[in-house]
Amino acid sequence: MKNEKMQAKLLSFGFTKLNIEKNVGKKLAEEIKSNIRIIEIDKSKIDIVKQDALRVNFEFEINYGDFGNVLICGFFIIAFNSKLIKEILKSWADKKIPNEIRTMLLNVILQRSSLKALELEEEIGLPLHMQMPRLKINPASDK
Question: Angle at Cα 32 formed by Cα 62 and Cα 21, nearest 5°?
Answer without folding.
Answer: 45
